[in-house]
Amino acid sequence: GKAQIGVTGLAVMGANLARNLARNGYTVALHNRTIAKTDELLDKHGGDGDFIRTETLQDLVDSLERPRRILVMVKAGAPVDAVIENLIPLLDTDDIIIDGGNSYFKDTIRREKECAEHGLHFVGVGVSGGEEGALNGPSIMPGGSKQSYKSLGPMLEKISAKADDGAPCCAWIDTDGAGHFVKMVHNGIEYADMQVIGEAFDLLRSVAGIEPQDQAEVFRTWNTTDLNSYLIEITSEVLSQTDGKTGKPLVDVIVDQAGQKGTGRWTVQSALDLGSPVSAIAESVFARALSSSNPEAREEAQQNLPAGLISTTGVAQGDPEFVEDVRRALYASKLVSYAQGLDMLSAAGEEFGWSLDLDVIASLWRNGCIIRAELLGEIMEAYKGDNAPVNMLLAPGFQSILQDLVPSWRRVVSKATALGVPVPVFSSALSYYDGLRRDRLPAALIQGQRDFFGAHTYQRVDEDGTFHTLWSEDRSEVNSAGEKA
Ligand code: NBP
Fold first, then answer.
1. Which residues form a coiled coil (predicted)?
2. According to the annotation, is 102 in a ligand binding site?
3. Which ligand 1 atom sits closest to the C-alpha of 78?
4. pLDDT 10s digits, 4-29
């Protein structure tokens, strides 16, 4: 018989997705540029289901039922283009090329156009959940044509994670690069989720003197609250780990310089292009950069920059009130980063012509992916039906949650500032929140400055139209026709 789907690129992600497909009853054709990797997979896991071994792309294509489905899981970037170029002459009209890697969404838009010119479907699919998710059920965010989803959707839904209500964490997002775009924003939110946990860890230790082993317990408890999530759970695991070599907490022997592979950076770059204020996500990307980009500067600054602390006393060791304040500040900051990410999705929908259903997107992140959390069920509810809030924070449910969080959030940011503990996301998220709430922003002054040096004009609060002050003349005001009032 023929295979229902082929996978080319059998490193961790491709191999695990292929196994997941086979375990779900599909016959899977396997291909990898280096044939040894195909054989290794068959040796170790051939028993997972029905596989067809192929050596060349031509073999792969010949082994598939039509229309063909080929999942490409090679390194993002040039390798994806190389594989597409090699596949195009071998394929027939309506065959589907699926890119399940972390491709940049604009590459996906370009590739979809190119493939469409050859009568082929190209489907960019965001896959989240790392190796473990790929094997046991990832969160899947497919883009591409709706027609291709008819043929592909049932398979992807079958291998995807399932939410607590049994719904698959996979649904068609929208055309061309929409799936990869949503996956990218997911990763941006993931950066912020991780950073706020990091800030809480730093505060609990340096302000309340709670050592990592004891913090593991704090995070375990937090995981039973509305913070319940995968990242809080694994934080507890990491903090409880003792280093075998030194007997110290592992977190104390790990170099404090965070790496990144680029998807967080893409989120922020795209947000800048869209004019979307994702300050909490941006601060979390910059916090990683601050930790690692210039170690020499950090070392010199430790010695030489004045601290100017306005307080040197923390709180009583393990003070439960402070611990609860930090928990609430973390939750509030997390709400802001989700609000910003979703706001960015709305802006992208307008810019790229996608109709993105935020309740559906939130529902896909409920399981399988790194940011899976109880909160996503509530976000999904907030965007259900016709009463979608203009900003997530304005959904009635979140307004009442914030009521309980904001005083704690202010106390924690004040304390951190007084003691010199950096909290870039806690504090920028709070500034975003206050910026949204503010009745008058200093943006009015900025408009005045812009009009002064560049005649950029301004609008008035009391009259329609566009105005300019003749700053270098008699400083009278003119309207857009150049007439004085
Ligand atoms: P890698 O990103 O490490 O890619 C390795 C694969 O690409 C191998 O199969 C390799 O073949 C193939 N390849 C390369 Br490199 N250049 C090629 C070329 N010119 N032509 C054909 N094949 C080529 O694999 P991965 O870590 O499994 O990730 C796959 C995708 O999934 C990436 O986009 C990644 O960002 C994404 N992703 C990864 C994770 C994760 O946790 N690792 C999570 C989510 C998404 P070879 O064996 O012959 O060298």
1. none
2. yes
3. 19
4. 999 999 999 999 999 999 999 999 99
